[in-house]
Amino acid sequence: MTDIVSLDLTSWRPEPAPEAQQTAIRTLEGGGVLVLAHLAFGLSKDELRFLSPAWSDARAKNISLDGDALKGARGAADDLAALRAMIGRFAACAGDLIKALFPRYGPYVARARTSFRPQPAVGRALSWRKDDARLHIDAFPSRPNHGERILRVFSNVNPLEDRVWRVGEAFPQMARTFLPQVRRPLPGMPALLALLRVTKGVRSDYDHLMLGLHDRAKANHAYQNGCEQRVVHFAPGTTWLCFSDQVMHAAVSGQHMLEQTIHLPVAALYEPESSPLAILEALCGRPLLPAH
Ligand SMILES: [Fe+2]
User: Fold this and answer.
1) I need a surface site. Which of 45, 87, 190, 244 has the fewest CB within 10 A?
2) Strand-strand pairing, 149-156 and 239-243
3) Model-level pTM greater than 0.85?
4) CA gyration radius for the chain?
5) CA 218–ligand 1 middle distance (angstroms)
């Protein structure tokens, strides 16, 4: 079962005691969710107006900040500058937090991507595969990551409403359940998908398996309803972190969240053997990345 562990931090630049830091590392890399119930991301009075789906352009689900580029938003130039500043401030806070709690991850914070999600968490899914109200690990069809970790920092900036998730069983159990159902890719298919630019780079065996686990779990109603799981409420003003490529998670409800994604190489982990790559390679008995 996914661990939910709380730490009583109140600063985005904490100076954690060694035990607190160990707890943070063990929770995160062990596939748990680290909850910081007293670490709110504060909005100014002026910024409260951004808590509205009206700032999303019609096409994108989220508003994102990638470097200096604000994507998926609409509004007048000075409004968009203020929105960009708010998201940028969250990116800086989330980066500071990661560097303070997990110094080994520090060098990778610069490559982070940040999103603001003013839309309701559920109700927009076009297909079962894209339906994040079903328990899943994050794996992206068009972006093979060759084992890179997906670390996410979330903050509920809704002053009134909880963000609610379901979390499921631990990664190794889930992988044991679904690995036998994932078929091998057709020979030459990963290279063809890359050639046709369906994927950005060649999908490794690792990426193929992670996508397979994502799909097989989402497609299975009996599993979605019957597997070991619990509901977790993230109250207004709560920040939480997890490796979303490892934690089985599903959106239940909520609106208005900020989120920062940091991609980490497995080598940056404190315990690389706890990574999905190491777990899947052990279960499969073979390497899942191409030899260099
Ligand atoms: Fe997800």
Assistant:
1) 45
2) antiparallel
3) yes
4) 19
5) 11
